[in-house]
Amino acid sequence: MSWKPVVTAAVVQAGSILFDTARTLDKLADLASDAAARGAYLAVFPEAFVGGCPNGCARSYIAESGPSALMSRFQKI
């Protein structure tokens, strides 16, 4: 029998803040921190949690702010 590592994961059931990606990223950071404080090594969020608006709107936000602005927000998490 082989050894298998155990990973504690948190499944986050929450919604984004519509049309406000910056606040959604803050919410994600808070929820991920809470999951970590409760012992989770991995936090799983709903598909498209970050975006906060319909697909086309997200594209225009990225075009206006540039990918580096979004990456800097993710790096803070």
From TrEMBL:
<protein>
    <submittedName>
        <fullName>Amidohydrolase</fullName>
    </submittedName>
</protein>
<dbReference type="InterPro" id="IPR003010">
    <property type="entry name" value="C-N_Hydrolase"/>
</dbReference>
<feature type="domain" description="CN hydrolase">
    <location>
        <begin position="7"/>
        <end position="77"/>
    </location>
</feature>
<dbReference type="InterPro" id="IPR036526">
    <property type="entry name" value="C-N_Hydrolase_sf"/>
</dbReference>
<comment type="similarity">
    <text>Belongs to the carbon-nitrogen hydrolase superfamily. Nitrilase family.</text>
</comment>
<dbReference type="InterPro" id="IPR044149">
    <property type="entry name" value="Nitrilases_CHs"/>
</dbReference>
<dbReference type="Pfam" id="PF00795">
    <property type="entry name" value="CN_hydrolase"/>
</dbReference>
